[in-house]
Amino acid sequence: MLLGTVLVLLFLSGAPASAHAALRTTTPDDGSVVKQGPRSVTLTFTESVGLLDDSFRVFGPDQRRVHTGEATHADGRSDTARVGLPEKLAQGTYTVAWRVVSADSHPVSGAFSFSVGKRSATTTQIDTGPDEDPLTGGLYDAARYLAYLAAALLVGAAAFALLCRPANRSPLRRPLVTAWWTLLGSTVVLLLLRAPYEAGAGPAAAFDADALSRTLTSRPGLALLARLAVLLLTAGFLVWLSRRRDRRDRRDPVALAAGTPLAVGLALTWAAAEHASAGIQVPLAMTSSVLHLLATGVWLGGLVALLLTLRRSSGEDLTQVVPRFSRIAFASVTVLVVTGVYQSWRGLGSVSALSGTSYGRLLLAKLVAVTVLVLAAGYSRRWTARLAAPATTRTVAAVAAVRERVAQPVGAPPSPEATEEPGTPDAGEPERPEAPSPESGDGDVLRRGLRRSVLIEVAVAAVVLLITTLLTTTLPGRAQAEAAQQAPAGTLPPTTLVTVPYDTGTDSVTGRGTVQVTLDPARVGENGVQAVVYGSDKGLIVIPEVRVTFTLPSRKVGPIDAELNDMGGYWGTNSVNLPLPGTWTMKTTVRVSDVDQVTVSKRVRIAS
Q: Using CA atoms, how far apart are residues 58 and 473, in angstroms rounded to an integer?
């Protein structure tokens, strides 16, 4: 039962913010030869995309950039991108480098080629635009993680104060203030870094006025502005709440009615800029995403609030507060299970993707973390049950233990205390020791034990949120499967992407670099192979020959020559038959001239 629950919980937050747009088709087709030059280039993606000022870079046969029109959506469809071309295009091969922003707010990029009249080849390097700046990407991901942590703590601590009603709320003031300021600061950083993150530029580009203006009118930018507005309202709510009279003996419907819309609005700022807002069943997906985020905050943020309360509150108060949080946590986990199952179906696509994709492997890592979290939660419930045990039960147990230690003379009649109910008043009854109360040493032991187990939960919860942040930058299984049906070279990697470095020791540009070999679907049977060659400074180059062979040493099969064809910008084929599963050796031979070549071996896994 526990394992089944954990398997569902591995999708705790894997879908709402973890899908990327993948290129589905291109017009003209990748590698095609058309008789007349097209008037436009159109890309179709697996989900809606946002366009940048420099979303398209088209290079002609002479490797010079072709003047293009403004990038737009084709026929008003948000999952397409189109750019106009000049009326007359010269014969030869054209390379199209593209960069867009997927619905989950992450930029994606790639390149493909087509030819007019006939193919042409050149060894001149092509500038396909900037790669992602590592500093900008690192800062942006760090800000996203801090925003997740702060939002969970803000929602969880406020919900703990209103629903669990501790007598002493002072321990919650500092985490609420810290969470608010952290969320405010991380949101401002995300807003400033949005433009350079999309364009692949350095952090200094954050202060470009035109780029910032474009960010403020984009969907991710508007969502971040809405988050800032909700935070300002939340600040007023927290100040108002701190000045209200203590309502620990009963629920405060006014505070709940005021705080709930703020929490929902905060969650909506994530859902509105992420994958839930695009694709199928958008209203249901948005609702599921909001409930998922709120349940995560109430549970994980509430754990931090409980940990702080255990250090400062009285034992008598804890006997009421701790069971309340236990019930609320159980309800939150139930919501996470229901929404997680739906979101995992929407984002992962298939069970086989768990082991066959990077996204699935991250989910498996999350499974381990959530398993530890659930076990720690079960251990905490044992301490909770002992701490919340009725005082009369503890009194009876304590008195019985004392009587067992009192020696009776042999043959003596039973004492009156033995025939009376505990607590019956009797003038002649000697004073009995009091049962251990929550304020006694026994209560301190219970609180220390519960505090330790909750501390473990908080630490593991931070790891779960970290893995969730990593999931937001990983292509999910469903989008990967859709893209693999027709994946041009240069798009996001399908099933298997192998980077092969080469160095022939000759020209510094064409004699050394890397070959990115894509194997799709990396399973027994027919496979497609595409090889894109990059020079020493990561630009696309054309070389005389790329050869790829496959050998399965354990079964003495091979070598099988992939027989790659020059597709005008990359090398590829769709008819490589790999008959057996196992670990194959892929040998890639790169020839940059008639006498200069090098062969590099890599291992690839072929599934059954």
A: 27
- The pLDDT of residue 326 is 82
Q: Which residues touch 571 (CB under 8 Å, ≥6 apart)?
A: 530, 531, 532, 533, 546, 564, 565
Question: What b/e readout covers 336-363, taking b as 16+ CB neighbours within 10 angstroms?
Answer: beebbebbbebbbbeeebbebbbbbebb
CA distance linking residue 234 with residue 154, whole number of Å? 10
Short-list 195, 183, 260, CA closest to 227: 183
Q: Say what the pLDDT of residue 423 is.
A: 43
pLDDT reported for residue 516? 81
Tokens for 531, please give them.
């090889």
Asked if 176 and 238 count as a contact pair (C-beta separation under 8 A), the reply is: yes
Helix (H/G/I), strand (E/B), else coil: 42:
strand
Could you tell me the two tokens for 97?
A: 């480098």
Which run of H or E residues covers position 264? helix 253-271
| pLDDT value for 508 | 57
Residue 350 falls in which region: left (phi positive, over 0), alpha (psi -120 to 50) or beta: beta
Rounded-to-integer distance, Cα 141 and Cα 471, Å:
11
- The model's confidence at residue 259, banded by pLDDT at 50, 70 and 90, is very high
CA atoms within 13 A on the CB side of 244: 17
pLDDT band at 439 (very low <50, low <70, confident <90, very high): very low
The whole-angstrom distance between residue 424's C-alpha and the CA centroid of its chain comes to 61
3-state secondary structure of 367: helix
C-alpha–C-alpha distance, residues 496 and 484, integer Å: 10
- Picking from 182, 476, 264, 512, the residue whose alpha carbon sits closest to that of residue 358 is 476
Kindly report the length of the chain. Answer: 608
pLDDT in tens, 456-512: 777 877 777 777 666 655 656 555 555 555 444 443 334 466 777 777 565 655 567
User: What order do you get walking across the sheet with 40-45 strand by strand?
Assistant: 23-27, 40-45, 80-84
Token reading at 506: 């000759």
Q: Buried (b) or exposed (e) across 210-229, using 16+ Cβ within 10 A?
A: ebbebbeebbbbebbbbbee
Separation of alpha carbons 164 and 84, rounded Å: 60
How many other CB atoms are found less than 10 A from the CB of residue 264? 15
From the list 182, 226, 218, 228, the residue with the least C-alpha distance to 197 is: 218
- 429 DSSP β-pair partners: none
Quote the pLDDT of residue 447.
63
Contact 227, 265 (CB under 8 A): no
User: For residues 560 and 550, is the Cβ–Cβ distance under 8 A?
Assistant: yes
- Tell me the pLDDT tens digit for each residue of 357-370: 666 677 777 777 77
- pTM beyond 0.70: the answer is no
Q: Give pLDDT tens digits for 80-112.
A: 999 999 988 988 888 888 888 887 677 888 888
pLDDT confidence tier of residue 352, bands split at 50, 70 and 90: low
